[in-house]
From TrEMBL:
PROSITE patterns: CHEW, RESPONSE_REGULATORY. Transmembrane segments: none annotated. Residues 13-152 form the CheW-like domain. InterPro entries: Chemotax_regulator_CheV, CheW-like_dom_sf, CheW-lke_dom, CheY-like_superfamily, Sig_transdc_resp-reg_receiver. This is Chemotaxis protein CheV. The lineage of its organism: Bacteria, Bacillati, Bacillota, Bacilli, Bacillales.
Length: 298
């Protein structure tokens, strides 16, 4: 797929691939997208998840195809040979999303992405952000939680940290910035099992930064927070920009930051390094995250 200019690290911008399902327009971060192709012959798999149409072979790789009509609860209008395939890679897995159409790429600021109204947003919603564009709205979907629903093994599990044994970490304070309600809940449960019971969670980087700055003004930052864990993709302020802002503020700069994101790959690690993150871990490697927290926390 032809992608735009590579974005500088920490600018709080992203490029969004706009696609259509039913009458609505949706968006996916271009970093997740490997390519956009015409539909290929599908082999159906008996007893697979209802969202999964089957599998395809693409340049020697066998990839699952997920129907976005089924994910979003639309009547099925697509056939196996119509629409477009968005080939993606995140959370260390590749998956193909079958959509009605792919239209264009937008370069926007995370500040332009608004949280859906509480009237239409709860812990189980698929929509985690809304972009106003001209007379339309582009809905940002929580692709990570969609994949966890299809394949629970791809998610975060408490069992992954139980092997670390009983540990006393309750006096250590962690600040988490994560926009997905599901992942905030899973992170809280898992880190609590690992002994880290003192956690404050925020749904975007801006709220997390404002909290840290308020502690700095109160003179209690060093006592109140020992480490920050941040996702990358978040409305208002993304994790790279949050990390850069922390490292630019004199009193905050020594605070360790670990980026925990589905977008951590060898090709993209340089972005986190450039903004000064102490470590980066790909979801859902929660055991590795806990070990890094142990290593960097004071």
């Amino acid at each position: 797929m032809e992608k735009g200019i590579l974005l500088e690290s920490g600018t709080n911008e992203l490029e969004l691939v706009e696609f259509e399902v039913g009458q609505n327009k949706y968006g996916i971060n271009v970093i997740k997208v490997k390519e956009i192709i015409q539909p290929l012959p599908i082999t159906t798999i008996p007893h697979s998840h209802s969202f999964v149409e089957g599998i395809i072979q693409l340049r020697g790789e066998v990839l699952p195809v997920v129907s976005m009509e089924k994910v979003l609860g639309y009547p099925s209008n697509l056939t196996k040979s119509t629409g477009k395939y968005i080939v993606t890679e995140f959370n260390r897995q590749k998956v193909v999303f079958h959509v009605d159409n792919v239209s264009q790429i937008h370069r926007i600021s995370w500040q332009d992405i608004e949280k859906p109204s509480t009237m239409v947003h709860d812990d189980h919603t698929r929509v985690i952000g809304v972009v106003k564009h001209a007379d339309d709205m582009i809905l940002i979907l929580d692709f990570e939680s969609i994949m966890v629903e299809i394949n629970p093994e791809s998610g975060i599990h408490v069992d992954q940290v139980r092997k670390l044994g009983k540990r006393e970490r309750s006096n250590k304070k962690i600040v988490i910035a994560e926009d997905s309600p599901l992942l905030r809940k899973l992170l809280h449960e898992t880190l609590t099992e690992a002994g880290y019971e003192n956690i404050d969670s925020f749904e975007n980087g801006e709220l997390a930064l404002n909290y840290l700055l308020s502690l700095r003004e109160a003179g209690t930052l060093k006592e109140d927070v020992q480490i920050v864990i941040t996702d990358i993709e978040m409305p208002q302020m993304d994790g790279h920009h949050l990390t850069r802002r922390i490292k630019e503020e004199k009193e905050l700069s020594t605070l360790p930051v670990i980026i925990f994101s589905s977008l951590i790959t060898e090709d993209l690690k340089h972005k986190g390094e450039k903004v000064g993150a102490e470590a980066q871990v790909s979801k859902p490697e929660i055991e590795k995250l806990v070990q890094l927290i142990d290593q960097h926390i004071k």
